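Fold this complex.
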Amino acid sequence: MKRDEYARNVFINCPFDSDYTPIFEAIVFAVNDAGFRASCARERLDSSEIRLHKIIELIGASRFSIHDLSRTTLDEASSLPRFNMPLELGIDLGCKAFSPDSGDKSLLIFDSEQYRFQKFISDLSGQDIHQHGNSAKTAVIRVRDWLRAESGKETIPSGTVIFSRYETFRAQLPAICTELRLDPAALTFADLTYTIARWLDTHA
Amino acid sequence: LRALEGRSDIEEMTMAKTASKTKRDAETSIYVEIPKSPEREVLYPLEPTSIPKEKIDAAIDAVMARRKAAAGK
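Structure:
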């Protein structure tokens, strides 16, 4: 993999439930509008690949990653927490610590409330954990500010500008999907990110 | 009290107008287009889309054309 590709990839480790979709889409849009490429475990549909291998490959290929722990809550049916997101965060921290080429990795960690993570993953104490308060706009602003600070890129628009563009895009997405005879809620990750990229290209 | 603070009514009105203008500027500046630059290129996904990319391009173009027509441009 080329080093410049690694420097522009952002791995997103977020929940995939429908309640979280507005935040997820806004984060993906913000990453693209900032000039980076978003990736996540949803993008690989090849069922012959082992899921964890896909995730490890995507993490290794991304200098930046966003981990959202806000949905690490008890499942109503099983009364057990879903731990996929903390697991992927752990893999990423291990990659940064042990891979000689990944020491420059940068992670943005979200949780719903300040210090909540200390109750279930106290080893993260000392890390800078951010809150989005379940607000897509706040998430966009945090992602933008983090990418601006960590990448050093000076051409990234402000979070407010990015979110305003996201709202415009989101308002047009149903019409775009109607043209394609697709359900906006059922877009694959590749379709969504391609549509975002093409929309940004024509609205830049 | 205003006199003690050193502000006249006219000054207060001027300040209010300026604040209003600044607010309007801030609101309208949201819609300022960001110029493209080589550093701010748009990156496309590496994974294949489920439908042909040309169809997505055409759908976006069609929606844009309708919006422009509706705006009378």
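Chain A touches chain B at residues 8, 32, 35-39, 43-44, 153-157, 160-161, 164, 172, 175-177, 179-180, 182, 188-191, 193-195, 197-202, 204 (CB under 8 Å).
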